[in-house]
Amino acid sequence: MKRAVDGPVWGEIAADLEDLAQEIRQCILTPKGSVPLNPEKGCDLEQFRDRPMNIRGLFVVAEVREALRLWVPRVLVHDLSATNTFETISLTVTWSPVEAVLDDFQTTEVAYVF
Question: How far apart are CA 55 and CA 84, in angstroms?
Answer without folding.
Answer: 10
